[in-house]
Amino acid sequence: MRGRDAKLHHPDLGRLDRPRCDAWAMACLAQVATGGIQSHRGHLGAFKMQILIVGIGALGGTIAARAIRTGLPVRLAARNTDSAKALRRSGLRVSGIGGEVRADAIDVAAIEDYGKGDQFDLILLATKAQDALDIVPYVVGLLAPEGAILPIQNGGVARALADRLGEDKILGGFSNLGATMVEPGVYEQKNAGHLLIGELAGGVSERAERVARVLGRAIEVKVSSNLTGAIWSKLLINCSVTTLGALCSQTMRQYMETEAGKKVFRRTYEEALSVALAIGTRLERLVVDPIPPGRPSNIAAGEHYESWVEAMIAFYGDVKPSMLQDLERGRKTEIDFINGYVVTLGHASGVPVHMNATITDLVHQIERGVLQPTRERMNDLAAQTCQPIRGNSI
C-alpha cells in the first residue's frame, strides 16, 4: 500500500483539504444547468464498451455483479493485491431488491497492476469521494482515446475532476441505489434505485446516451440534461438522511419516529435547500419534489408535508446509511463532500448553516474516536432547532 499511495499522489488532485474546499466552493457557485431526465434499460447492440469498475464496495460490487451476469465486458480494480485475491476466490453475490445474482468468475486485479496495455472506454469510479480524487491521476492513463471517467460519488466530485482534467474526460453521475456490503464480495441491494448520469455542462450528449444503453443491461440508468440540479437534489437527501442516520446509528424510518428526529431532519434539509436556491440551482425531482410542500411560508402544509416525508421514507427509510458503515469500520467518511460542502457554500453565499456545521463537526469527532454514534444525540441536536432560519418559518 505504501508503494501504491506514493504512485497515486498528485499535487493538484490530492485530498480535498479546507482551503481547497473553499476554492472549489467558489468555483461551484456559477454551476447551473437546465433540462430533464430520461430512463434507459437498453441493449448493447454491436458496440463492445470495455468497462473498468474501480472500487468493489457496496455500490461497486452490486453494479459489478449485475453487469458481469448480463455479459458486459467488465474488469474490476480492487484496493490492493490481497483484496483482489480474496475477491477472485469468493466471486460476487448480490441479494435483495432486483433478485439474487452470482458472478463466480470475475476479472479483478489491484489498481496498481493495471498498466499502459489496458485501455477502457468507461471507467466507473465507485470509490469514496476522497479516494476518487486521489486515484484519478492514475486511472486517467487507462482511458481509451474516446473514453470517459464516470464518478458516481455524492457532492461535487465530478465537477472538481472536470475542472482539472477537462469535461471531455469526465461524465457526471451519482447513484440512488441503496446497498450494503455484508462482507467483501457479498452485498444486499436495499431499493430499486438507479444511476443518474449526464454532462456537467448540461444537455444530453450522445456519449451519455451510449453509456446509459450499455450499463442499462445491468441496472436502470437515467440521463439528465440538468445533472447539476439533480446532484443537488441528491445532496439534500445525503445531508438529512445519510448523515443523521450515521450520527444516531439508525435508519431514517427509525429516527423519524421521534419528534427530535423530525425536527432535526427538517432543519438540516431546509438549510441545505436554502443554500442550493441561493446559488441559483434549478433542482430536479428525484424520489420526491426537492422543495417540500408549503415552503417557504409553511402555510397549510400539514398533511401534504407529512405525505412528502412518507414518500421519502418509503424509498430511503430502511437503508443503512453508508456513512454509518464507514464509521463502524473506522474509515474516513464523506462528510466534507456532503454537509461540509453545504457549510462551505453557505458561508460563501451568506446563508445560515448552523445545523449542518454542527453535524459536520460531530461526524469529525466520531471519526477521531472522541464520540460514538448514539441515538441520544438527536435530542441534543433538536434543542438547537429553536434558532430561526432566515427566510422561512420552519
Describe what you observe in this structure:
The protein folds into two domains: 224 residues, NAD(P)-binding Rossmann-like Domain (Rossmann fold, 3-Layer(aba) Sandwich); 157 residues, N-(1-d-carboxylethyl)-l-norvaline Dehydrogenase, domain 2, CATH 1.10.1040. Helix 8 packs across helix 12 and helix 13 packs antiparallel against helix 14. It is 43% helix and 15% strand. With 394 residues, it is an alpha/beta fold. Helix 7 links the parallel strand 12 and strand 13. The chain is built from 15 helices and 13 strands.
- On the 0 to 100 scale, the average pLDDT is 86
Low-confidence stretches: 1-35, 41-46, 389-394
Q: Which oligomerization state do the chains in this entry correspond to? A: single chain
Shape: globular
Widest beta sheet: strand line-up? 6-3-2-7-8
Tally of DSSP helical segments: 15
CATH architecture of the largest domain: 3-Layer(aba) Sandwich
CATH superfamily of the largest domain: NAD(P)-binding Rossmann-like Domain
The description of the largest β-sheet is: 5 strands, parallel
Proportion in β-strands: 15-25%
Structural class: alpha/beta
Condensed summary:
The protein is an alpha/beta fold and 394 residues long. It has helices at 2-8, 18-28, 58-69, 81-90, 129-139, 157-165, 206-215, 227-248, 252-255, 259-278, 302-316, 322-328, 339-349, 354-367, 377-382; strands at residues 37-40, 51-54, 74-78, 92-96, 101-103, 108-110, 120-125, 143-151, 172-175, 179-183, 186-189, 195-198, 221-224. The strands form 3 sheets. Strands 6-3-2-7-8 form a 5-stranded parallel sheet, with helices on one face.
